[in-house]
């Protein structure tokens, strides 16, 4: 019985001595630290993600003659009423205006709701929409005239009437 106890104690002493000599825990901590350091270095050196431009239409899609764009439109109203637009004027939700990403300010366009055939003439005075897949934001008055207020969005075609 005493012999078994001595053997156990000797084994424990051997383990402690090996830990001190070999630095088992120290080596483990050091290798983990090096791993973390290298991970951070390689993650920071990774190339920046490339953002693709959102396309609202297929590039191969042919548009009818005179049509500038076909796509989904929405409207904006009360939350932006009496606030400044991108061209500096005050937004009036009861005026016939719109927001487009690329058309010049002051460009007059004809917007036709493809579902019901109703159309309206509007002037570009703001930038937007900032929702993927949309091509135009109409003022409340323009949206009401083409029957867009109840649905909120609709497929429309845009024709340029007078480009500035």
- Looking at the overall shape, the CATH architecture of the largest domain is Beta Barrel
Low-confidence stretches: none
Number of helices: 3
Largest sheet: 6 strands, mixed, barrel
Report Rg: 34 Å
Cα distance, first to last residue? 103 Å
How is the largest sheet built, in terms of strand order? 1-5-2-4-3-6
**Percent of residues in beta strands?**
25-35%
Helix and strand succession?
Answer: HHEEEEEHE
Please provide a written account of the structure.
With 164 residues, the chain is α/β, with parallel strands linked by helices. The protein folds into two domains: 2-44; 69-162, RlpA-like domain (Barwin-like endoglucanases). It contains three helices and six strands. A six-stranded mixed β-barrel has the order 1-5-2-4-3-6. The longest helix is centred in the N-terminal third of the chain and has 21 residues, at 2-22. It is rod-shaped and about 105 Å long. 19% of the residues are buried. The model has no long low-confidence stretch (mean pLDDT 82).
Describe how the helices and strands are arranged.
Layout: H1 2-22, H2 24-44, E1 69-76, E2 97-99, E3 108-113, E4 119-126, E5 134-139, H3 140-145, E6 153-162
Parallel strand pairs: 1-5, 2-4
Antiparallel strand pairs: 1-6, 2-5, 3-4, 3-6
Task: Please tag this protein with its features.
3 helices; 29% helix; Barwin-like endoglucanases; 2 domains; 6-stranded mixed barrel; 6 strands; 164 residues; alpha/beta
């Amino acid at each position: 019985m005493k012999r078994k106890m001595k053997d156990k104690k000797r084994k424990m002493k051997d383990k402690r001595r090996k830990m001190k000599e070999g630095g088992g825990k120290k080596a483990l901590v050091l290798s983990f630290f090096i791993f973390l350091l290298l991970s951070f270095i390689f993650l920071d050196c990774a190339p920046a993600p490339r953002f693709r431009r959102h396309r609202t239409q297929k590039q191969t899609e042919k548009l009818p003659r005179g049509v500038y764009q076909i796509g989904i439109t929405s409207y904006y109203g009360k939350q932006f009423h009496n606030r400044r637009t991108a061209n500096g004027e005050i937004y009036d939700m009861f005026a016939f205006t719109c927001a487009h990403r690329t058309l010049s300010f002051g460009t007059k366009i004809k917007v036709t709701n493809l579902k019901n055939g109703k159309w309206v003439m509007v002037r570009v005075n703001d930038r937007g929409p900032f929702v993927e897949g949309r091509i135009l934001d109409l003022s409340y008055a323009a949206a009401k005239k083409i029957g867009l207020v109840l649905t909120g969005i609709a497929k429309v075609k845009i024709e340029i009437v007078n480009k500035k």
